[in-house]
Amino acid sequence: MAAKKNILHMPEKILLFGSWNSFPGMNPFSVDLPDGTKRIEGSVVIIKSTSRGSVKAETPKAFISRTLLAKEHWNDVLACGCNDDLEMIVSNKRVVRKDVLRDNIELVPPFSFPGKLLAILFKRFEWCNGAAEKGLVIYCVEQHEDNIEALQKILVELAHLNNLQPAFLDWIESANHFYNKYS
């Protein structure tokens, strides 16, 4: 008989940007990558842009360790990027180029999803000294097939506009793995 998973002992391995209701296909405690190469098992930290909606009402089971509001808990969100157990960032955010390239990762918090993601990735890069094995899986479940490619391009452009070091740009592209649900 398999042991029952207990949220109290599950490390925080997934950051989820958005409302749980946007991710009906995700299973408690694990996410399978679309290409079948990996299963990530652990608890989830939800990052919300607004305080609208009840997390308790939308949470299926108790595998969400906590919910952070980006505007109120930005330092805690950044600290999640320095979690040694973190493996994946999931989002349902549509990536739109308009106004994103004005974003600054020094804002508390940056105003766009790519800005927030870039700030977390940069914090992680600094924390791990650019170790390739500390790269993350970035998984977009938004409905548009080209969303992940657009996100990658915007992250690189935004990194240039924020004058981030070339070693970080290399780390984004080589240590992190980008997927969408169509991969």
Provide structural commentary.
- The protein has a single domain, classed as NAD(P)-binding Rossmann-like Domain (Rossmann fold).
- The N terminus is likely disordered.
- It has 5 helices and 8 strands, in the order E-E-E-E-H-E-H-E-H-E-H-H-E.
- The strands form 2 sheets. A 6-stranded parallel sheet has the order 5-4-1-6-7-8. Strands 2-3 form a two-stranded antiparallel sheet.
- The N and C termini lie far apart (34 Å).
- Strand 4, helix 1 and strand 5 form a beta-alpha-beta unit.
- The protein has 183 residues and is of the alpha/beta class.
- The radius of gyration is 16 Å and the shape is globular.
Summarize the structure.
It contains five helices and eight strands, in the order E-E-E-E-H-E-H-E-H-E-H-H-E. By secondary structure, it is of the alpha/beta class. A six-stranded parallel sheet has the order 5-4-1-6-7-8. The protein has a two-stranded antiparallel sheet with strand order 2-3.
DSSP, total strands = 8
What strand order characterises the main sheet? 5-4-1-6-7-8
Helix content: 25-40%
The domain count comes to 1
Shape: globular
If you average the pLDDT, what whole number results?
81
Under the CATH scheme, the architecture is: 3-Layer(aba) Sandwich
Rg calc: 16 Å
The CATH superfamily name is: NAD(P)-binding Rossmann-like Domain
CATH fold call? Rossmann fold
Binned strand content: 15-25%
Q: Low-confidence runs (pLDDT<50, min 5 residues)? A: 1-7, 55-61
